[in-house]
Amino acid sequence: MASAREERDAADQNFDYMFKLLIIGNSSVGKTSFLFRYTDDSFTSAFVSTVGIDFKVKTIYRNDKRIKLQIWDTAGQERYRTITTAYYRGAMGFLLVYDITSQDSFVAVQDWGTQIKTYSWDNAQVVLVGNKLDLEEDRQVPTEDGQRLATELGFEFFEASAKECINVKQVFDKLVDVICDKMNDGVSSDASPSPNHKEAGLKDTPRGIQGGCTC
Ligand code: GTP
Ligand code: MG
């Protein structure tokens, strides 16, 4: 569950924009690890499967604007699906994670994509992430397959490693980028980012996110 500090951060109204993001994908692909690497720059090999849903808050700066990211970490286990899909609505962006050493987790990406289409806003942006890039010797999913599927589904694509801190910040930066681009297009003007969102959209071209993990 969120700590008292995180709850305080979450309640902090001092921001220009709030983006609600969701991390989804099969159990054990590394969703929680990915989030902890991004927000706390930490990693543990122990596997503690997420129960239901949890969140962390991180504030980043872009063009002197304060963007508060509310990042929801969902349980991959099927039995929590009813709870987790209830959080899709209102999410502006998704990290859809699979494990490059697990063909099953990759096959499931189609289903996760369908869940996004079913339960989220039409303009929600998605980055497909092939995690555990450090386990190259156990790879079951070729990079080209990941890239091809992402293109087919209209998603951005990265391979990454929460463990070795490869492409973690880049993935979040890209997701924020595409959300900002969409807002600038005015395409998402009917999809209000959050109840706390103070303005209709970013007015400047988004560049140079600050913050993020230190790796
Ligand atoms: P659920 O909460 O059940 O949905 O799983 P999850 O997707 O949150 O997985 P979690 O982050 O708990 O990670 C599962 C296991 O994979 C843990 O033992 C992690 O240490 C390990 N793991 C996560 N990311 C990586 C990575 O990039 N490389 C390697 N080698 N192991 C990883
Ligand atoms: Mg988890």
Automatic annotation (TrEMBL):
PROSITE patterns: RAB, RAS, RHO. It comes from the Eukaryota. GO terms for biological process: exocytosis; protein transport; regulation of exocytosis. It is a lipid-anchor. GO terms for cellular component: plasma membrane; secretory granule. Its EC number is 3.6.5.2. It catalyses: GTP + H2O = GDP + phosphate + H(+). It is found in: Cell membrane. Belongs to the small GTPase superfamily. Rab family. Keywords: Acetylation, Cell membrane, Exocytosis, GTP-binding, Hydrolase, Lipoprotein, Magnesium, Membrane, Metal-binding, Methylation, Nucleotide-binding, Phosphoprotein, Prenylation, Protein transport, Transport. Its main location: membrane. Its cofactor is Mg(2+). Pfam families: Ras. It is an enzyme of class 3 (hydrolase). InterPro entries: P-loop_NTPase, Small_GTP-bd, Small_GTPase, Small_GTPase_Rab. The keyword Cytoplasm does not apply. One of its GO terms (molecular function) is metal ion binding. The small GTPases Rab are key regulators of intracellular membrane trafficking, from the formation of transport vesicles to their fusion with membranes. Rabs cycle between an inactive GDP-bound form and an active GTP-bound form that is able to recruit to membranes different sets of downstream effectors directly responsible for vesicle formation, movement, tethering and fusion. RAB3D may be involved in the insulin-induced exocytosis of GLUT4-containing vesicles in adipocytes. SUPFAM superfamilies: P-loop containing nucleoside triphosphate hydrolases. It comes from Hippocampus comes. This is small monomeric GTPase.
